[in-house]
Design brief:
3 helices, 6-stranded antiparallel β-sheet, alpha+beta, single chain, two-stranded parallel sheet
Protein backbone atom coordinates (compact mmCIF):
# COMPACT_ATOMS: atom_id res chain seq x y z
CA UNK A 1 0.00 0.00 0.00
CA UNK A 2 1.23 3.48 -0.85
CA UNK A 3 1.67 6.14 1.84
CA UNK A 4 -0.53 9.15 1.28
CA UNK A 5 1.28 12.40 1.92
CA UNK A 6 -0.34 15.57 3.21
CA UNK A 7 0.73 17.38 0.03
CA UNK A 8 -1.09 14.81 -2.14
CA UNK A 9 -4.40 15.72 -0.50
CA UNK A 10 -3.85 19.41 0.31
CA UNK A 11 -2.86 20.68 -3.17
CA UNK A 12 -5.85 19.22 -5.08
CA UNK A 13 -8.21 20.24 -2.28
CA UNK A 14 -6.90 23.81 -2.27
CA UNK A 15 -7.06 23.95 -6.08
CA UNK A 16 -10.65 22.76 -6.11
CA UNK A 17 -11.58 25.22 -3.37
CA UNK A 18 -10.06 28.15 -5.28
CA UNK A 19 -11.81 27.14 -8.50
CA UNK A 20 -15.16 26.93 -6.68
CA UNK A 21 -14.54 30.30 -5.03
CA UNK A 22 -13.76 32.00 -8.36
CA UNK A 23 -16.81 30.43 -10.03
CA UNK A 24 -19.05 31.49 -7.12
CA UNK A 25 -17.84 35.11 -7.40
CA UNK A 26 -18.37 35.06 -11.18
CA UNK A 27 -21.92 33.74 -10.77
CA UNK A 28 -22.70 36.34 -8.10
CA UNK A 29 -21.32 39.09 -10.33
CA UNK A 30 -23.34 37.88 -13.32
CA UNK A 31 -26.47 37.76 -11.18
CA UNK A 32 -25.88 41.31 -9.97
CA UNK A 33 -25.25 42.59 -13.51
CA UNK A 34 -28.37 40.97 -14.95
CA UNK A 35 -30.79 41.63 -12.07
CA UNK A 36 -31.83 45.12 -13.19
CA UNK A 37 -32.25 44.34 -16.94
CA UNK A 38 -34.34 41.26 -16.07
CA UNK A 39 -36.56 43.33 -13.76
CA UNK A 40 -36.99 45.98 -16.47
CA UNK A 41 -37.88 43.32 -19.03
CA UNK A 42 -40.47 41.78 -16.69
CA UNK A 43 -41.98 45.22 -15.99
CA UNK A 44 -42.16 45.94 -19.74
CA UNK A 45 -43.81 42.56 -20.35
CA UNK A 46 -46.37 43.28 -17.60
CA UNK A 47 -47.11 46.73 -19.09
CA UNK A 48 -47.68 45.19 -22.53
CA UNK A 49 -49.92 42.53 -20.99
CA UNK A 50 -52.04 45.22 -19.29
CA UNK A 51 -52.64 46.94 -22.62
CA UNK A 52 -53.45 43.63 -24.34
CA UNK A 53 -55.98 42.44 -21.77
CA UNK A 54 -57.59 45.85 -21.28
CA UNK A 55 -57.65 47.18 -24.86
CA UNK A 56 -59.85 50.23 -24.17
CA UNK A 57 -57.38 51.61 -21.62
CA UNK A 58 -54.58 54.00 -22.50
CA UNK A 59 -53.20 54.50 -18.99
CA UNK A 60 -53.11 52.51 -15.76
CA UNK A 61 -52.68 53.59 -12.20
CA UNK A 62 -51.03 51.72 -9.39
CA UNK A 63 -52.86 50.16 -6.53
CA UNK A 64 -54.45 52.54 -4.07
CA UNK A 65 -55.46 51.84 -0.49
CA UNK A 66 -58.34 49.39 -0.70
CA UNK A 67 -59.64 46.44 1.24
CA UNK A 68 -58.31 44.19 -1.53
CA UNK A 69 -54.93 42.78 -0.41
CA UNK A 70 -53.72 41.80 -3.89
CA UNK A 71 -52.23 43.60 -6.86
CA UNK A 72 -54.47 45.15 -9.52
CA UNK A 73 -54.38 48.05 -11.98
CA UNK A 74 -57.20 50.37 -12.97
CA UNK A 75 -57.36 51.18 -16.69
CA UNK A 76 -58.52 54.59 -17.93
CA UNK A 77 -59.45 55.91 -21.37
CA UNK A 78 -58.29 59.22 -22.92
CA UNK A 79 -60.83 61.22 -20.88
CA UNK A 80 -59.81 59.59 -17.60
CA UNK A 81 -62.87 57.35 -17.30
CA UNK A 82 -62.43 53.94 -15.66
CA UNK A 83 -62.79 51.33 -18.41
CA UNK A 84 -61.56 48.23 -16.62
CA UNK A 85 -58.99 46.42 -14.56
CA UNK A 86 -55.84 44.48 -15.32
CA UNK A 87 -55.42 41.88 -12.59
CA UNK A 88 -52.35 39.65 -12.28
CA UNK A 89 -53.09 36.21 -10.92
CA UNK A 90 -51.45 32.80 -10.62
CA UNK A 91 -52.09 29.20 -9.70
CA UNK A 92 -49.88 26.12 -9.47
CA UNK A 93 -49.80 24.10 -12.65
CA UNK A 94 -48.02 20.88 -13.58
CA UNK A 95 -44.58 22.50 -14.02
CA UNK A 96 -44.86 25.30 -11.47
CA UNK A 97 -46.76 28.55 -11.09
CA UNK A 98 -48.78 29.69 -14.09
CA UNK A 99 -48.86 33.50 -13.95
CA UNK A 100 -51.45 35.37 -15.98
CA UNK A 101 -52.88 38.87 -16.46
CA UNK A 102 -56.66 39.09 -16.73
CA UNK A 103 -58.49 42.09 -18.12
CA UNK A 104 -62.00 42.77 -16.90
CA UNK A 105 -64.03 45.72 -18.14
CA UNK A 106 -65.95 47.98 -15.79
CA UNK A 107 -69.08 46.38 -17.32
CA UNK A 108 -68.10 42.96 -15.97
CA UNK A 109 -66.73 41.32 -19.10
CA UNK A 110 -63.44 39.48 -19.36
CA UNK A 111 -61.60 41.32 -22.13
CA UNK A 112 -58.38 39.33 -22.18
CA UNK A 113 -56.25 36.64 -20.62
CA UNK A 114 -52.50 36.85 -21.16
CA UNK A 115 -49.95 34.28 -19.99
CA UNK A 116 -47.07 36.06 -18.23
CA UNK A 117 -45.09 33.06 -17.07
CA UNK A 118 -45.57 29.37 -17.72
CA UNK A 119 -43.27 26.37 -17.50
CA UNK A 120 -45.45 23.48 -18.58
CA UNK A 121 -44.81 20.45 -20.77
CA UNK A 122 -43.95 21.46 -24.36
CA UNK A 123 -46.66 20.41 -26.81
CA UNK A 124 -49.20 19.83 -24.04
CA UNK A 125 -49.44 22.39 -21.23
CA UNK A 126 -47.65 25.05 -23.26
CA UNK A 127 -50.71 25.08 -25.52
CA UNK A 128 -52.30 27.27 -22.83
CA UNK A 129 -50.50 30.17 -24.49
CA UNK A 130 -52.55 29.67 -27.65
CA UNK A 131 -55.26 32.21 -28.32
CA UNK A 132 -57.86 29.52 -28.99
CA UNK A 133 -57.53 28.25 -25.42
CA UNK A 134 -57.38 31.69 -23.75
CA UNK A 135 -60.39 33.00 -25.71
CA UNK A 136 -62.67 30.53 -23.90
CA UNK A 137 -62.62 32.85 -20.90
CA UNK A 138 -63.64 36.00 -22.81
CA UNK A 139 -67.06 37.54 -22.42
CA UNK A 140 -69.42 38.20 -19.57
CA UNK A 141 -68.27 36.92 -16.19
CA UNK A 142 -70.23 33.73 -15.49
CA UNK A 143 -72.14 33.23 -12.25
CA UNK A 144 -70.24 29.98 -11.73
CA UNK A 145 -66.46 29.55 -11.41
CA UNK A 146 -64.47 28.28 -14.40
CA UNK A 147 -63.16 24.72 -14.30
CA UNK A 148 -61.52 22.25 -16.66
CA UNK A 149 -62.96 19.30 -14.76
CA UNK A 150 -66.39 17.68 -14.91
CA UNK A 151 -68.29 19.62 -12.25
CA UNK A 152 -71.89 20.62 -13.00
CA UNK A 153 -71.75 23.39 -10.39
CA UNK A 154 -69.06 25.22 -12.40
CA UNK A 155 -68.62 26.74 -15.86
CA UNK A 156 -66.64 24.12 -17.84
CA UNK A 157 -63.99 25.12 -20.33
CA UNK A 158 -62.46 22.77 -22.90
CA UNK A 159 -59.31 21.41 -21.26
CA UNK A 160 -56.15 21.03 -23.27
CA UNK A 161 -55.63 17.44 -24.39
CA UNK A 162 -53.17 15.81 -22.01
CA UNK A 163 -52.89 18.93 -19.87
CA UNK A 164 -55.86 19.02 -17.52
CA UNK A 165 -53.71 20.25 -14.63
CA UNK A 166 -52.50 23.23 -16.69
CA UNK A 167 -56.03 23.94 -17.91
CA UNK A 168 -57.30 23.87 -14.33
CA UNK A 169 -54.44 26.13 -13.19
CA UNK A 170 -55.38 28.78 -15.76
CA UNK A 171 -59.06 28.40 -14.84
CA UNK A 172 -58.33 28.88 -11.13
CA UNK A 173 -56.09 31.89 -11.83
CA UNK A 174 -58.90 33.48 -13.86
CA UNK A 175 -61.33 32.72 -11.00
CA UNK A 176 -58.98 34.47 -8.55
CA UNK A 177 -58.89 37.55 -10.80
CA UNK A 178 -62.70 37.53 -10.99
CA UNK A 179 -62.85 37.43 -7.18
CA UNK A 180 -60.56 40.48 -7.04
CA UNK A 181 -62.78 42.28 -9.56
CA UNK A 182 -65.92 41.46 -7.58
CA UNK A 183 -64.37 42.77 -4.36
CA UNK A 184 -63.28 45.96 -6.14
CA UNK A 185 -66.68 46.57 -7.68
CA UNK A 186 -68.44 45.59 -4.45
CA UNK A 187 -66.71 47.97 -2.09
CA UNK A 188 -63.23 49.01 -3.05
CA UNK A 189 -64.12 51.19 -6.01
Amino acid sequence: MKNIKFKDIFVPTLSLFLICLVVAFLLAGTNELTKEPIAQLQAKKADQAKLQVCPDAVTFDGQEETDVPVEFYRGFDEEGNLVGYAIPSSHKGYGGEVEIMVGISSKGEITGVNILSINETPGLGMNATKESFRNQFLGEIPDKSFTAKDDPSKEKIDALTGATITSEAVSQAVNKAIDVYRSLEGGGN
